[in-house]
Amino acid sequence: MEIKAISAFSDNYIWTIIKNNKLIFVDTGQAQPVLDFIKDKEPIAILLTHKHDDHVGGVIEIKKKYPDIKVYGPVETRDLNDITLKDGDNFQLLGENFKVIETTGHTDYHISYIMGDNLFCGDALFLAGCGRVFTGDYKKSYESMKKFANLDDNIKVYAGHEYGLSNLKFVKSIMNTEEVIRSYEEVLKKNKRGQITLPSTIGQEKKINPFMMAKSLEEFIKLRKEKDNF
């Protein structure tokens, strides 16, 4: 099994799980890069994390060409879903188990998927960051960070955007630790080479992600508002 990134728009990633020439896509915000990638492979499923167009915008066009592909997603994408999911659901694809966890705050019904030691978290968690709280419900977003922090350190984090460098610039301005500096320098080198900076790991995020490290809701809100204005 392989996990590959398909680039979309300016900084989105459409994560692609490949096994035995079959494909599962996560957050198909744009159709053409996905259609170009498929070639002679068999797409079987699309997993959606939330409703924003840069994550779901390609679904209809992909389904037109591949009508048998099944779309899984939260209640907020129900108009696109074949299977609507909620917190705690489990399902099997390509012989792999997928567990659904509710990770709201960025949107009202945002979900993430855990497959083995891989986390597909959309816009809930980023390298050294978290999604903007468009719902205004900072408590839900804070609780989502705590859920992520409780996962095993070895779990790889496949976020929906290439935000590592901008996030680490902010983090470096508030907690200039050795681990943060090292991560910033690594990400900067990869950016200059045009390389992807993901996945990170939960263990890494526990050391460099201030939103995951926040000790209280008040601290989380303060950090999120500072980042919004950075």
The separation of the N and C termini measures 39 Å
Number of domains: 2
Please report the total strand number as a whole number. Answer: 14
Oligomer class: single chain
SS class: alpha/beta
Specify the CATH homologous superfamily of the largest domain: Ribonuclease Z/Hydroxyacylglutathione hydrolase-like
CATH topology tier name of the largest domain: Metallo-beta-lactamase, Chain A
Please tell me the overall pLDDT: 98
Please give the count of helices. 9
Radius of gyration: 17 Å
What helical percentage do the residues reach? 25-40%
Could you explain the architecture of this structure?
The protein has 230 residues and is of the alpha/beta class. It is 35% helix and 27% strand. The protein has two domains: 1-85, Ribonuclease Z/Hydroxyacylglutathione hydrolase-like (Metallo-beta-lactamase, Chain A), CATH 3.60.15; 102-229, Metallo-beta-lactamase, Chain A (4-Layer Sandwich). The strands form three sheets. It has a six-stranded mixed β-sheet with strand order 1-2-3-4-5-6, covered by helices on one side. A six-stranded mixed β-sheet has the order 7-8-9-10-13-14. The protein is globular, with a radius of gyration of 17 Å.
